[in-house]
Amino acid sequence: MTTYVVGDLQGCLSPLERLLDKLQFDPANDKLWFVGDLVNRGPKSLQTLRYVKSLGEAAVTVLGNHDLHLLAVAAGYRKSSSKDTLKRILYAPDRDELLDWLISQPLLHTDKKLKHTLVHAGIHPYWSLKLATRLAEKLHKALTTDPDSLFLNMYGNTPAYWSKDLKKHKRNRFAINVFTRMRYCHLDGALNLEFNGHPGLAPKHLRPWYALSDRKPLKTRIIFGHWSSHPAIGPTSVMPTDRGCVWGGSLSAYAIETQCTTSVKCK
């Protein structure tokens, strides 16, 4: 059995099909981990969502910022933008079934045996894995029991600093920003959600979230997406997977057991 981690799909089903053919993926024996952002910007968001859902127990996915955006739009708490490709999902006959499945997915997945953790954007440098897991579980509970309250307060770049004393809505917003939007932090751990370029071009006052000198050590490798301008190689403690498929880059699958990466080009 092989566990393949696939980068951001964003509605690009055709490259995924070609990638799985290249891997000779066998859903009876192999596992697919999706790093989130299954939908939006690409041409086949509806078909992509249907396909990943159809994989059942052969797939694990975590939520990305575009997935949460779809859920918020569907719930009436956000308007679609001109760049969105979500309309076919919103008017699909199986819309409710698809959205119910999507909202039930976690924001963090850890496999202790494989010693790998899957998240869309990252884990805050000052969080332990135990704290990150607890916060992800609280968000999951909020999404499945009180999504309206979550979506109403989800958007915004503040607070920038983590504190265990944050009130519920601010704590949830901060955690969502970490799990689904974070790329850089200031040297004091404050989130910077504006700069999204290559680490080699970052201002001196910013560091990739995993590169702060006082980051808590985690006994797991973090696999993340969300960052198409990031190099394909990072420190050994992390594994970036987003190759910008929707922007004409490539779609990759990282095999955890063999540590090999397979890619296909995207139009």
Placed side by side, the strands forming the largest sheet appear as 3-2-1-11-12
The ordered string of helix (H) and strand (E) elements is EHEHEHHHEEHHHEEEEEEE
The biggest beta sheet is recorded as: 5 strands, mixed
* Helix segment tally: 8
Structural class: alpha/beta
CATH superfamily: Metallo-dependent phosphatases
Name of the top-level CATH class: Alpha Beta
Number of strands: 12
Low-confidence stretches: none
Report how far apart the termini are: 30 Å
**What's the architecture, going by CATH?**
4-Layer Sandwich
Give the helix level as a range of percent: 25-40%
| Rg over CA atoms | 17 Å
Q: What fraction strand?
A: 15-25%
**General form:** globular
Molecular structure report:
This protein has 267 residues and is of the alpha/beta class. It has one domain: Purple Acid Phosphatase, chain A, domain 2 (4-Layer Sandwich). Helix content is 30%, strand content 16%. It has eight helices and twelve strands. The strands form three sheets. Strands 3-2-1-11-12 form a five-stranded mixed β-sheet, with helices on one face. It has a four-stranded mixed β-sheet with strand order 4-5-9-10, with no helix packed on it. A hairpin with a 4-residue loop joins strand 6 and strand 7. The chain is globular, with a radius of gyration of 17 Å. The mean pLDDT is 97.
